[in-house]
Design brief:
This protein has 632 residues and is of the alpha/beta class. The protein contains 27 helices and 19 strands. It has three domains: 247 residues, Thiamin diphosphate (ThDP)-binding fold, Pyr/PP domains (Rossmann fold); 154 residues, Thiamin diphosphate (ThDP)-binding fold, Pyr/PP domains (Rossmann fold, 3-Layer(aba) Sandwich); 135 residues, Rossmann fold. Helix content is 43%, strand content 15%. The strands form four sheets. It has a seven-stranded mixed β-sheet, with helices on both faces. A five-stranded parallel β-sheet has the order 1-2-3-5-4, sandwiched between helices. The mean pLDDT is 94. The chain binds thiamine diphosphate.
């Protein structure tokens, strides 16, 4: 580890106020050293955090975070902030089990003023704080730092809209690096990147003044009037136009790596007394670490890597995401009506593969999960078959759109729900553990949970062939290394499979817990002399009811296993049906899944360990359960 003497000398964030600009520059280097060092070991959001080092120093040297409120949008860029606000000694534990979170959390530090992980909430939260401040008669500053990617979401616009209307004092810092995870999309990003040289603006201004003066009688007066509005003249041709129209004072753009300039403009923003202000800061994503600067998408969020060789560890088996992406390409080649849609995550969802083959049938909507779903619904009304690939945690945002725009109209939209289940180091804001519960309650929805990467291929084919609302849920990470079976087939709706015959105990395992249950089986056999039957429902909606009923009639020991919340999840749905059919009497039923709590960060393995979802732990629970009930 490189020495970081300046960083190590900081006792309190306010120490930065006395630092000379040259010290702050050295501190920026030290912060980058430390961030690269820890992220290379623990993984994390490297490029976003490297890009805002100077901005963080500027914010902490101008504002007083004991008093002022600082809200990081998404929060994935907060590593320098954590290092400077009392978490330097724990920084090596970043994103590890029991360690500090990769995102701001109110329960982690008094300097984290708003908890976050999903994007585009900062302006709304900041405005709420501004109203509270004004009602309390206080005068502290509230600063929301939002990226140009996060600004593409509806909620950010809703915040800007109300902020302009309310006219309360609020500082929005727009961190514009022209990147979301991939290059940013949308008309707004084109306006933001419109860099106008001073010379261009002056020339245009001269041309217009000359034209105005040439108008007989009133020309001279018009020119005088126009001359006075120099600021608004410039903002008319720059992104300022947009924000000024929303009643924000626009300042910028400023070079976000020039600490002096950042400080000066933050101070300017702090002096704006009447209404909200937007400070436009330009930064380079991944700044200071060449591989990240050259490939900010790859280094947006990384697994551990070797800082010297920049080699990211190779995964053993192809990931579910990759298998999904390849399957969609294969299906897209045969069906010109398939459209792939992502909300700012082409690489994350594997839809980048579809983009490469069929660019005209690929849409990146920006960070707009709600819009993506309704947009898909619109396409579906016109005979297209949209496939919307969204992570489980982010699909939470589109709940009403799934109900109101898709299911209520019974439209053929396929939802490919990636990162379903425990995701690991990103933690509580990112686990995909609610989707079974929130999707299964929607009339007309179909849900398939493939047990491995091969089944995923058939499930995607099935969902599209079904031509109805249908969700396929699959986990983060590598597959199980199973062989890929040909040809792709359509799975019969609402029919499960007994994947292992057995006696006495029936285990119903869904999705990616089927293989761990198969691993548990010999341990159970060894301990109890019983080989359990293992049933994979494949369909979580509609449930394979006839098969489940039959198993409940034949087995009195029933175990239900899922990697989602128990409240309202798979086991709930099975038990609701069995209670309604009066089939639970005399049964011993064990439910294994996520209890009613927000799950912390840690590796997927550690978290599955903690919640008893690994094969040997499933076996242990079942053995104990069986013995306990045998005794009574
Ligand atoms: C609702 C939601 N959708 C998707 C994401 C995944 N995500 C995390 S960061 C990010 C890009 C953010 O871009 P920007 O705000 O410009 O910040 P940058 O990473 O460029 O610094 C995305 C899409 C998220 N966190 N929240």
């Amino acid at each position: 580890m490189q020495p970081t003497p300046l960083l190590d000398s900081i006792q309190h964030p306010s120490d930065l106020k006395s630092f000379a600009e040259s010290d702050l520059c050295q501190l920026a280097n030290e912060l980058r050293e430390r961030i690269v060092d820890v992220v290379s070991q623990n993984g994390g959001h490297l490029a976003p955090s490297l890009g805002v080092v100077e901005l963080t120093l500027g914010l902490l040297s101008v504002f007083d975070v004991e008093r002022d409120r600082l809200i990081w949008d998404v929060g994935h860029q907060c590593y320098a902030y954590k290092l400077l606000t009392g978490r330097r000694d724990r920084f090596a534990t970043l994103r590890t089990l029991g360690g500090i979170s990769g995102f701001p959390r109110r329960d982690e530090s008094p300097y984290d003023h708003f908890g976050v992980g999903h994007s585009s909430t900062s302006i709304s939260a900041g405005l709420g704080m501004a109203m509270a401040r004004d009602l309390d008669g206080e005068d502290y500053h509230i600063i929301a730092v939002i990226g140009d990617g996060a600004l593409t979401a509806g909620e950010a616009f809703e915040g800007l809209n109300l902020a302009g209307h309310m006219g309360r004092r609020l500082i929005v810092v727009l961190n514009d690096n022209e990147m979301s995870i991939s290059p940013n999309v949308g008309a707004l990003s084109l306006i933001l990147s419109r860099t106008l040289s001073r010379q261009w603006v002056r020339q245009k201004r001269r041309d217009i003044l000359r034209f105005l003066r040439s108008i007989p009688h009133i020309g001279e007066n018009l020119a005088l009037y126009a001359e006075r509005g120099e600021g608004s003249f410039k903002s008319f041709f720059t992104p300022g136009m947009l924000f000024e129209a929303l009643h924000f004072t626009y300042i910028g753009p400023v070079d976000g790596h020039d600490i002096g300039a950042v400080q000066k403009h933050l101070q300017m923003a702090a002096r704006v007394e009447d209404g909200p202000v937007l400070l436009h800061v330009r930064t380079i994503k991944g700044k200071g670490y060449p591989p990240a600067e050259q490939n900010p998408t790859k280094y947006h969020g990384v697994a551990s890597f070797l800082p010297e060789t920049h080699a990211v560890a190779k995964k053993h088996f192809p990931s579910f995401t990759q298998v999904f992406g390849e399957t969609l390409v294969a299906l897209g080649a045969d069906d010109p009506k398939i459209i792939a849609i992502t909300a700012a995550m082409p690489e994350g969802t594997g839809t980048n593969l579809f983009r490469e083959q069929f660019p005209d049938r690929f849409v990146d909507c920006g960070i707009c999960e709600q819009h993506a779903v309704t947009f898909a619904a619109g396409l579906a009304t016109q005979g297209y078959h949209p496939v919307v690939a969204i992570y489980s945690t982010f699909l939470q945002r589109s709940y009403d759109q799934v109900i109101h725009d898709v299911c209520l109209q019974n439209l053929p939209v396929t939802f490919c729900i990636d990162r379903a289940g425990l995701v690991g180091e990103d933690g509580a804001t990112h686990h995909g553990i609610f989707d079974i519960a929130y999707m299964r309650s929607i009339p007309g929805m179909h849900i398939v949970a493939p047990r491995d990467e091969d089944m995923l291929r058939h499930a995607v084919k099935t969902a599209i062939a079904l031509s109805l609302p249908c969700a396929v849920r699959y986990p983060r990470g590598p597959g199980f290394g199973v062989p890929m079976t040909q040809p792709l087939r359509v799975l019969p709706v609402g029919i499960g499979e007994t994947v292992q015959e057995g006696s006495t105990i029936a285990i119903f395992a869904c999705g990616n817990r089927v293989h761990p249950v198969l691993e548990a089986s010999p341990l159970i056999a060894e301990a109890l002399g019983i080989t359990p039957l293992v049933f994979d429902p494949i369909w979580l909606k509609p449930l394979p009811l006839a098969q489940i009923r039959d198993l409940f009639e034949r087995y009195s020991f029933v175990v239900l296993v899922e990697d989602g919340v128990l409240a309202g999840g798979f086991s709930s749905s099975v038990l609701e049906q069995m209670v309604d059919q009066d089939l639970v009497e005399g049964h011993h039923i064990l439910r294994i899944g996520i209890p009613d709590t927000f799950v912390e960060h840690g590796t997927q393995l550690e978290l599955r360990e903690r919640y008893g979802l690994r094969g040997y732990l499933i076996a242990k629970r079942i053995i104990e359960f069986y013995k306990k009930h045998q005794e009574h």
